[in-house]
């Protein structure tokens, strides 16, 4: 009599949307994944991973192998194509899995127990497929403050740490590793196996909206901390362990060198501007993550104009189609043997609505980034990407174009086998074939762990940068009367302060403001959400007027959320009207954390991970490919004060 896995507990009442939470199944010696009543080699956890991969690969049809090369999006409730919502569209997900796709990004925002149950339901669907291949579930970062669709996801109970730039402001590898271990534990608790991070991009163009998720402008610092991030998430300096989370370091390479800071998600930001020397710096930033054996690498969207390999210019095509960039610089020169995952939507067609949307015809979901290969057919884009070195295509779930490329002789079966082997190997390495299920009740405990919350809040306190403390204003002891702008009165009262509406009654003022930005491309899907354009505070800005008003009346503390490299010259000048004033640069902090720093319950420890330019003209004149090269910066990289 054969042995097989007996599923314990109650699964979701119905795959079409039942609300009952599932429990983890009881784990016995093996799982009969292909439902044949026999223990086959790929089902046998005692065998070496390579043997199991080879056995399963030999059982797969060409269509099933091609399915492994797609990394789709788990649709959200109501069929939301971006996957947003509190539950999945189960019928839609079942169709995708039935088509052979078994790697997906999740963008759910729900409580931990339900998140775990939803992911269990996805694994149950996969278990019922012909070979029972489990689903790999990935996510954009979830443990920080900034949320932008296509770059990061909303929380759902995950511990809240400073932005990646904040971790860079601390600069402590051990802390970054600890963050990685904590976040990985939370990911695995809800059934997430792959982190589409870290960003080892250099933040060299101050206006770039994705700089907040980097480790700053210095390649040595980025390399060091990205390596620590990978070690933390994956569980070892030698690579991924079974209980770890696979990292996909991105975006190989030169993504941050975009003129005017326009981002490669958009047609108007499709080209980076580099030269051989600056490109070497952008490549070097990945050294630490590669040395830590990141399970995956994601090439950049952008066309790396000016970049070279062995003295020869790279082709003027996006990173996912660029063979010298992937097969040459990554695989041959750096001996990377892991999974190469494309960024999302690079094989889609970009119509006029995508390239030049209007108010009457906005971009909507016509999302595509086939930069440099727009004239090719969709099938030819898949073939070119796969032949350049892509193992898995992000954001797509239709196997037909790849199958067409194979049929036309433009993509070899051997290349498909190589990609499929890497995808399967990672699934085995993660332990998914032996048990992909999680315990929803345990997930609620893991994501509610007070120790994780304390670690995250301590990191928030350490990550903030004190740029000025004139007259020794800080720390500001309580009880004091405060006038507030942009700061929660409730948080101030909880910190022991009295909040007043009349500034004449205040002992001091705290003003919290955002870095300036403009909506320069309101009709583009990503452009309308990204912070673009100017970085400088101007005299007629509301934030400047508020700071000037406060500083002319009482000692004033200004805190600027630095999601980009703000030009603080006007604000700094306004503060000089007060003999006692202070200026903070924030990299992901709650109001409670800011007030702890103001009161002296915590000491600021951060140092700027990039310079802050002195003027808009200096920003316009700097080289987007080189970090910290603006003329006469107001604050240099590394600036940061603390209290005696």
From TrEMBL:
The enzyme's E.C. designation: 3.2.1.21
Reactions performed catalytically: Hydrolysis of terminal, non-reducing beta-D-glucosyl residues with release of beta-D-glucose
Entry keyword set: Glycosidase, Hydrolase, Signal
Protein name: beta-glucosidase
Organism: Novosphingobium cyanobacteriorum
Pfam families found in the cross-reference section: Glyco_hydro_3 (PF00933)
Family, similarity comment: Belongs to the glycosyl hydrolase 3 family.
Spans annotated as Disordered: 617-644
Leader sequence residues: 1-19
Keyword Protease: no
Listed GO MF terms: hydrolase activity
Domain Glycoside hydrolase family 3 N-terminal: start-end pairs: 114-426
